Amino acid sequence: MSTEEGFASLAGKCALVTGAGRGIGRAIALELARAGAWVVCNDIDPRTATETAARIHLEGRGAFPYAADVSDSEAVRRMVQDVVAATGRLDILVNNAGIEPSSPILETPDEMWDRTMNVNLKAVFLTSRAAGQVMRAQGGGAIVNVASIAGVRTPLALRAHYCASKAGVYGFTKACALEFAAHNIRVNCVCPGVIITPMTAKARRTPEIMARWQQEIPLGRLGTPEEVARVVRFLASDEAAYVTGQAYFVDGGKAMH
Hints:
This protein has helices spanning 23-34, 46-58, 73-87, 110-138, 160-180, 201-204, 207-216, 225-236; strands at 14-17, 38-43, 63-67, 92-95, 141-146, 185-192, 247-250. By secondary structure, the protein is an alpha/beta fold.
C-alpha cells in the first residue's frame, strides 16, 4: 500500500527527485507523492519535469517542477536553496538522473566519457553535498541513489563509461553513508536490472535481445519502473530507519550469481 495512511508513509516530508521527467524517475516521483511527500520534480528538460508534476497534481498531491542540470555545481546549489526557500525543508533526496550512451572503449571520445561521469556520478556528489548540508541542520534525512547492476556484477558491452559511473555511485553510497551517519542521514542505493523504460526501448524491439534477457532473468520478465519506485519509497521512509549503506538489487534475480 503506497498511500500516506498506509505502509511507508512520507506525509509531511519534502522530496527532491532528479531525472524525474520520465522512466524510473517519474515513477519514483509519483510513488513518493502517493505516499504523502511534497515532491520537487527535477529534470534538465523543463517540459518533462512539468509533465511529471502535472501528473502528481492530477492525483491531488503536491509537487512542482524544477529544471536544472545536476552536473552543474552552481545550478545544484541554487536548486536546493530554492527548494528549502519554497518548502522550508528537504527530507529526501533521490539521485536518479542518468544517461547511457553507447560506444566501444577504443572509439569513445573524451566528451562522452566526461559527460557520462558528470551526469551519472559527479551529480550524485553535488546533490548529496548540498542536500546533506540542509539535512544536517535539520537533524536528519534520507538519500537514495539509483545505481545499476551493470556497475556491480553484470558489465555491459559498449557501455564501459556507464558501468564505471554506476560502480562509482555504488562506492560513493557506501562512503557517504559512513560519513553521514553521524548526522542521522541515511544513504542507500537501488541497483535496477533490465527495466521497461525509454532507455531500453530500442533493445526491447529486438526479439533476440528480449529472448536472451528473459533467459538470463530468473523471474523470466523485465521489471517495471514502479517496482523500482516502491523499493525507493521504502528506503526513503522511516520504515527503513535502521538501514544505511546498503544496495538493493531490483533485477528479477539477474545478478544473484
